[in-house]
Amino acid sequence: MRSWLFAPGDSDKKMIKAAVGAADIVIFDLEDAVTEANKPAARTAIHAFLAAKTAAERVRLWVRVNPLDGPHTQADLAAIMAAAPGGIMLPKASGRSDVEALDAMLTKLESLHGIAPGSTPVIALVTETATAMFTTGDYAGAPRLVAMTWGAEDLADSIGAQTNRGPDGEFAFTYQLARSLCLLGAAAAQVLPVETIDTNFRDLDTLKARATQVRREGYRGMLAIHPAQVEVINAAFSPSSDELAEAREIVALFAANPDAGTIGWKGGMLDRPHLSRAQQVLAMAED
C-alpha cells in the first residue's frame, strides 16, 4: 500500500481513470472534493461503481467518508457499504474513540449486508485539528485500523494559520511536528504510516525528493491527488536493487553468526537493529 490516490466521488471519469491506474489504493472521496449539494449524487455514483466490480477488484477501492462530527457519515456509510468497499478513510479523527465509533457503525452495516464482521479496514487522518494533535499516540489496538496519515491543509485552517509553509517552501514547524507525531503514533499502533499529499502535482521532481526522504524517516506510503504522482510514489517506496542486495547480505551475515550481537562489516559495526532494518527492507519487497 505505497500509493493512495484520491478521486472525487462525483466524477465517474476521474473514478474510472484512478481505478484503472497503478495506484495501490484508490480512495473515492465524499468529503473535501465533493460539495454539499453533490454529496447525495456522489454516494449513488460510488455505490454503483463499486457494485459493478468483483470482490477482488474492490479490495483496492476505498472510500473517504465525511467526519464523524458532521451530519453526513451515517448517510455515506448507508449508501456505500451495501457495495462492500475495500476500506474506509476516516477524516478529522480526534482519537481512538472515533475509530471505535466508526467500528460500531461498520459492524452493523456489515451484518446487514452479509459482509464478514470486522473485514472492512480503516485508515485514519489523525492531525487535521488542533485537538487531534494531542491524541496521535492513542490508537494502539484500535479496531480495524491498518494505517494512519496526516493532513496539513485542514490543520492550518483549524489553527487559523495563513500558510503551512515556511519561506523556503517546506512545511513549517507545526506541520513537521504533525508528520512526526503521525509517524510515531503509527509505530506505536503497529500500523502503516502514510505521508500526506503534495498539492503541486506538476512538480514530480520535488515529489520524488520528498517521498524518498519520508520513506527514509519511516513512512511506508503516500497520498496522491493526481494519477501522474502515482508512479513516482510507487518507485520511491519500493526498495532499490542495491538496497535489497545490501539487506540480503546483512541478513545472511547474521544467519551465519547466530550468536553474535555485533558483526564487523565494511569497516563498521552492525548490531541487531541493523538486522531488523534489513529484514524490514526485504519484507517491503515481498509485500
UniProtKB/TrEMBL annotation:
Listed cofactors: Mg(2+)
Keyword Membrane in annotation: no
Domain HpcH/HpaI aldolase/citrate lyase per the UniProt entry, residue ranges: 2-227
UniProt keywords, alphabetically: Lyase, Magnesium, Metal-binding
Binding annotation for Mg(2+): E128, D154
Protein residues bound to substrate: R64, E128
Presence of keyword Transmembrane helix: no
Molecular function terms, GO-annotated: lyase activity; magnesium ion binding
Coiled-coil portions: none
An annotated GO BP: oxaloacetate metabolic process
Family: Belongs to the HpcH/HpaI aldolase family.
UniProt protein name: CoA ester lyase
Source organism phylogeny: Bacteria, Pseudomonadati, Pseudomonadota, Alphaproteobacteria, Sphingomonadales
